[in-house]
């Protein structure tokens, strides 16, 4: 099949290129804009308590709004606020309100904090209507623009924090991050491909073609989101950049290394390209298929975040695969050997003996290589047991020095840590009658005595007096592990148990959302991971016609996953003292380390099988596979790890952790697992590795690969 694809593309390259250009123009011109959301609650199903609480709040208090922004004031000399300062804050609130800033509903000054270190103005904004709604962000920006003039001549300084301000800073940080990541990714690909092939044409080729493919993929993802009502997290755009360029460059490398190899064997350029597609196509398609299935398995998630992330990345990989098997061969077949210009190195087999020496050494002592590489992975995997999830995506997605983060920390000088995003306990009458006012004070007292609760506000009653809202300020920051333990444990237990007869209590707020997200994630780990592993093993079994090989390949990938998580825990939690890693990190690692790790395993094992079919013994086959496929795996792994490492330049902790974990995982997969562990185990198992199909024996793949 792949030989037929190669022949068609090589014989009709102009038509293939024109088809891609027309498709790109249609998608770019007609597709909707891809929008993202930072509202974590939008990713949860409706049966979770936090979502039921939010729905009750919308029905019972339609006009009420939790302050979406908070203006924090303190003295420039850090002295306690005076009465004159408090009066100035009230005057500023009145003056800003008088400016009639669009979407600012109310500015409510509060008294100074008990220690008089800070004072706030609570800002109520128009509720966000959709993920693409910029009203709150625009309102915060206008407030920031207007605030300095109000502070002139006073002894006060101020800044704006809160959920809307954090979303604005995350948006600005994301735009800068995407620019930095894009430039770093493209620059790295250009430099590494120049070093590998010594050709500016090959270096530029992935950038131009994948740039075109990325526009098509983004448009298709936007269409899919609209068609299936999916919500895309704000981090997806950054990951799309590195996925498209990283994976796309990998597939181009797989093809170009084979193309160069066939040219060195004496084939003419067109025949060599058909042979390259025929021989590398199966491995590329199988690798991409494993990645796509791994991504699509996230559709089984209960979280909208993962249900949308998986298909989005699957669409990107599928588009890249199609380009790798059609568009790239079409362009290269037009260029012929000029694609290597000005280098002449493609004509001769390199004398570099590094991979040949590694192959010979592993062929002689596979048990030693298996023990050392496997032992190193196990040692790192031990640290994975120390993983602690962190749910602070809002501040984690912005730079530490952003205004919302800076003034969120200043707010802690005078108010409990949970003041920026208080929790809510709703007490609802089950009978439809009004709540007894005498019981509300007693219920508030029970909530106040809950460990981890800083303050409980007086109840606010709905117009029909059937629902009471108790605003609960936690003693810890809303996204912290301590706050989650408080809400998940004593606060929910007390709220439910102390509810008077004939009433029902629901605990809501952002911390409750995170508690429910954790429960959903735990469920997803138990469902999505095993399903994806089984599906990937089926692909491996079909590719290799073996029952044995898929087992040890998946076990090695699982060990690589655990080692990567352990290394990330070691660096960030133990080394840098961070309270935890972003809660979605294991899933992100699963997407890229497990799925892409299978890529490199497939490439190496497919070459092992090819060498064994030439009549070589298992150890000699492992030796030759490392010699021939090792440079491809190393180059692809270096480029892909480097592109994901560019995420660390974004300047925020979320993308820094993602960048390190994924690049570290890919490096482990490429340079430890695929180069050492997998070939060593295959050599040790010998003929048994291919049971029952015994695909290590027989003729070469197809004559059409040799003579298209």
Automatic annotation (TrEMBL):
Q: Transmembrane ranges?
A: 12-34, 177-197, 204-224, 236-257, 283-306, 312-341, 367-387, 525-544, 551-574, 580-603, 624-648, 660-685
PROSITE patterns for the chain: SSD
Q: Does the keyword section mention Transmembrane?
A: yes
Which InterPro entries does the record cross-reference, listed alphabetically? Answer: MMPL_dom, Mycobact_MmpL, SSD
Where does the record place it?
Answer: Cell membrane
Which keywords belong to this entry?
A: Cell membrane, Membrane, Transmembrane, Transmembrane helix
Q: Where is the SSD domain?
A: 202-334
Mainly resides where? membrane
In the bilayer, the protein is annotated as: Multi-pass membrane protein
Family note: Belongs to the resistance-nodulation-cell division (RND) (TC 2.A.6) family. MmpL subfamily.
This chain's protein is named: MMPL family transporter
Which species is listed as the source?
Plantactinospora solaniradicis
